[in-house]
UniProtKB/TrEMBL annotation:
PANTHER family: INNER MEMBRANE PROTEIN, INNER MEMBRANE PROTEIN-RELATED. It comes from Streptomyces sviceus (strain ATCC 29083 / DSM 924 / JCM 4929 / NBRC 13980 / NCIMB 11184 / NRRL 5439 / UC 5370). The lineage of its organism: Bacteria, Bacillati, Actinomycetota, Actinomycetes, Kitasatosporales. InterPro entries: DUF445. It comes from the Bacteria. Residues 1-11 have a biased composition (Basic and acidic residues). This is DUF445 domain-containing protein. Keywords: Membrane, Transmembrane, Transmembrane helix. The chain crosses the membrane at residues 61-77. GO terms for cellular component: plasma membrane. It holds the Pfam family DUF445.
Length: 461
């Protein structure tokens, strides 16, 4: 009645399978994508699975033994009844007969789940091996409709209270340190994976494209106009004039030689020398006065020049066009592109160093921000609601966008299982409990038979 089968742990089936009709109506498998780990787990029997199989066999023997017991009782009761042992024999025989019927019916029902009873291709038997793929599709649809719906996801996440829990967790300094360390490691890893040449090219292209797309002259003009109005350029003028004075003092001979060298050849040398000395003294006096007199006329003239230039940068078409041409020439130079590209290397080194140093300003600020955020999230309902809304929105987006992919993971995985191995493994896990159905059927059938026989005798009497 029961075919005892032993499955070896090393038995496996192809990793990728797809439903295919068999001549007997069953569904076998051919190539189809399925997670290899899930296929291996389902098609391989562990020691725990083998132990469960042994438990199923013991329960099968118990249920079958009970069936044989009631069969023997039935035979003996019928013999006793025919021998005139008394009315009790009829009651016992009726109970035993009904118990056998119940046991046989439940044996058929339990066996039909996993295989054809007695090997006969009876319709609607061997349900699990023949309907495995349909069960996988139904399971995927059930999960998609009842677990991956927007309402279910929102209700479950709202009940969890992620915002408040995350806030309490982040407010713990140890947890903030852990998150900071993980973020630093992730940042270092990302910067290590990125190739400098690729990032440099992207940065250079982005800066150049942004500069080409936007005219800079009006912005420079507004900034220069603001600087002049606030007197911010005066310190620069002070610095330039002071350095010019110091340079003239140190290079007096060179200045006079330059003036003398530009004199006509027909002038006497002493005249050239006097002219050179005079020019140098006047130039030094002019620079000295400009340095020491904030109200010097030259400073006022420079203020007016800068004001007019700032206005031209904003409104004069020719000036703006010349600035744009100059911008294009400067950006097109290789030295400028190299400078833009090298900025990434400097920034990356700075970030990596800061991420590796536990006492760096970057990590300390990140840690402080996490602690502050956690403290606010733990007590502020508005922040909690905002975080919960973000999490719910992200989860709903993933569920609604990738529901088909998620449910197909279930259907494809089930389709990738070998039908015979799947049947044996499912039977190993639930077969022991199913054998109690056979036992209960025997007992309940016996009691029902006894009751029916009793009622019949009573009515017949």
């Amino acid at each position: 009645m029961e075919r005892m089968e032993r499955t070896k742990p090393e038995e496996t089936a192809p990793a990728d399978v797809e439903p295919q009709a068999r001549s007997d109506g069953a569904v076998t498998s051919t190539s189809r994508a399925a997670p290899a780990s899930a296929v291996r787990a389902m098609n391989t029997f562990s020691e725990a699975d083998l132990e469960k199989q042994r438990g199923v066999r013991r329960m099968k023997l118990t249920a079958t033994g009970l069936l044989l017991f009631v069969a023997v009782v039935y035979v003996l009761a019928k013999w006793a009844d025919n021998s005139g042992a008394g009315p009790w024999a009829g009651y016992v025989a009726a109970a035993a007969e009904a118990g056998m019927v119940g046991a046989m019916a439940d044996w058929f029902a339990v066996t039909a789940l996993f295989r054809h009873p007695l090997g006969l291709p009876i319709p609607h038997t061997a349900i699990i091996p023949t309907k495995k793929d349909q069960l996988g599709v139904s399971l995927g649809e059930f999960v998609g409709e009842n677990f991956l719906s927007e309402d279910v996801v929102r209700q479950r996440l709202r009940a969890v209270g992620i915002g408040s829990r995350l806030g309490v967790w982040l407010a713990d300094p140890e947890h903030a340190d852990r998150v900071t360390a993980e973020l630093s490691a992730a940042l270092r890893g990302a910067l290590t994976v990125l190739r400098d040449s690729d990032v440099q090219a992207v940065v250079g292209e982005a800066i150049t494209r942004r500069a080409d797309a936007q005219e800079i002259a009006p912005g420079i003009g507004k900034m220069l106009d603001k600087v002049v109005a606030d007197g911010g350029h005066r310190r620069v003028v002070d610095l330039v004039v002071a350095r010019a004075h110091d340079w003239l003092v140190l290079h007096d001979e060179q200045v006079m030689d330059a003036v003398q060298g530009g004199a006509p050849g027909w002038t006497p040398r002493f005249v050239d020398k006097k002219v050179g000395e005079r020019v140098y003294k006047e130039l030094l006096r002019f620079v000295t006065e400009m340095r020491d007199m904030p109200s010097h006329p030259a400073r006022g003239a420079l203020d007016r020049f800068l004001t007019d230039f700032a206005s031209d940068l904003q409104s004069d078409t020719d000036t703006r066009a010349r600035v744009e041409r100059l911008k294009g020439e400067v950006l097109g130079r290789g030295e400028v592109q190299d400078l833009i590209a090298s900025a990434w290397t400097a920034v990356r080194s700075m970030i990596v160093s800061a991420a590796e140093d536990e006492r760096s300003e970057l990590r300390l600020r990140v840690r402080a921000s996490l602690l502050s955020l956690g403290a606010r999230m733990a007590v502020d309902p508005k922040v909690q609601a905002k975080v919960d809304g973000w999490v719910e929105g992200a989860a709903v987006y993933v569920v609604t966008t990738y529901r088909r992919e998620i449910t197909s993971l279930i259907t494809d995985t089930v389709a990738g299982w070998d039908a015979e191995h799947t049947t044996r493994k499912i039977e190993a896990h639930i077969g022991r409990d199913l054998q109690f159905i056979r036992i209960n059927g025997t007992v309940v059938g016996s009691l029902a038979g006894l009751l029916i026989y009793t009622v019949s005798r009573a009515l017949g009497a």
